[in-house]
Amino acid sequence: MNCIIIDDEETSRTILGRLSKNNPNIEVQEIFHSAVNAITYLNDYSTDLVFLDIHMPIFTGLDFIKTIKDPPQIIMTTADQNYALEAFEYGCIIDYIVKPVSQERFDKGVERALSTFQNTKATFESPVPDESIEELYINIDRRLVKIDIPSITSIEAKGDYIFMKTNDKNYMVHSTLKKINNKLPQDIFFRVHRSYIINTKKIVDIEDHSVLIGKDVIPVSRPNKPELMRRLNRL
Amino acid sequence: MEEKPSLDYINQICGGDAHFKKDLIDIFKREISKEIESYQLYLKNGNYLKTSEVVHKLSHKIKILDLKNGFKIAEKYCIQLKDSNQSLKIDFERILATMLLFIKKA
Q1: Domain locations in chain B?
Q2: Superfamily in which the A130-231 domain is placed by CATH
Q3: What pLDDT was estimated at residue A230?
Q4: Which residue has the higher pLDDT, A158 or A7?
Q5: Percent of all residues in chain A with a pLDDT value above 90, rounded to a whole number
Q6: What residues of chain B lie within 8 A of the CB of A83, using their CB?
Q7: Closest by Cα among A230, A155, A219 to A187
Q8: Do B9 and A22 touch (CB under 8 A)?
Q9: Is there a smaller number of Cβ atoms within 10 Å at the N or the C end of chain A?
Q10: Can you list the alpha helix ranges (DSSP code H) found in chain A?
Q11: What is the ipTM of this complex?
Q12: Average pLDDT, chain A
């Protein structure tokens, strides 16, 4: 399970980073000192869990929750017990941990998040087999162009656009990686890096933190490497 | 009897990793100094709301050093400041002085 940490205090960020490192069930994607920076990040990338401080200058933790659409699971971390009641009015908040956070209490919160995460994953994954989706329509010059999904080799984020490579043609489409990722079969396509999605069937080889797709060397971010390796049929 | 700060919590988090402990204490020292500076500045300028916010941040550090009564004082002071009331100023600043002295030696 991936997570991000949002806290304006460096001491707290360091402690939460350490507690996360000690827990084998989570991998920290990013750590933010402001909720605004985290919102910008979540416009492009998804996460499974957020450790969120309430008291932050200008933009508080509760402002963050009110702002993001479709929030992931959130564990509030705060030195103040007085917000607990208000916090639990938000369905996305699964736990409320009072600082300073012990390893035991932290692990309990992660366990709770993991159980919800696995249930949600099972609910969403079982009804429609991913292999059944074979085509995707993309908007190019006011035409809807049909793309054969298995022919897609890689997709790269390029500002407000994505650059899609297929076996025989490349396309520049006005969209985000997050949007297209939701349309692709998750058993074949994998987001290896904040700027890249790859078709895992097209992998030629993997070396350290990069993957070769056709003739393209594509970076693999450190947090995503274990999941990529898990998906491979290795000897 | 005056309450004494402790590194119990920090030791628990570090789990014997001396390098990480040093890093964490350095961060703590750097951050507490900045927060105390901000506290003094806001208070001097009569910005009680901002002073209260900084006291809240400092209260977390008071808890990290396991000063239970100190935390209660900080919490009350935090609320008082929102009403421009400084009656716990001396008590709070005494806690800060104790913490600074302790963490300097850590």
Answers
A1: 17-105
A2: LytTr DNA-binding domain (2.40.50.1020)
A3: 85
A4: A7
A5: 53
A6: none
A7: A230
A8: no
A9: C
A10: 10-21, 35-44, 61-67, 84-87, 103-125, 177-183, 225-231
A11: 0.94
A12: 88
